[in-house]
Amino acid sequence: MTDASSLARGVREGDLRLHELEDHADHDTAATARRLVLEAETDADLEAIGSYGFEAEAAESAIENMLGAAQIPMGVAGPVSVDGGAASGEYYLPLATTEGALLASVNRGLSVLEGAGGVDARVTKHGMTRAPVFRVSGVVEAAETVEWVEENEARLSEAAEETTNHGELIGLEPYVVGDSVFLRFAYDTKDAMGMNMATIATEAACEVVEAETPASLVALSGNLCSDKKPAAINAIEGRGRSVTADVVVPGELLEDRLHTTASAIVEANTRKNLVGSAKAGSLGFNAHAANVVAAAFLATGQDEAQVVEAANAITTMETRERADTTDLYASVSLASLEVGTVGGGTKLPTQAEALDIVGVRGGGDPAGSNADALAEVIAAGALAGELSLLAALASNHLASAHEDLGR
Question: Is 324 one of the catalytic residues?
Answer without folding.
Answer: no
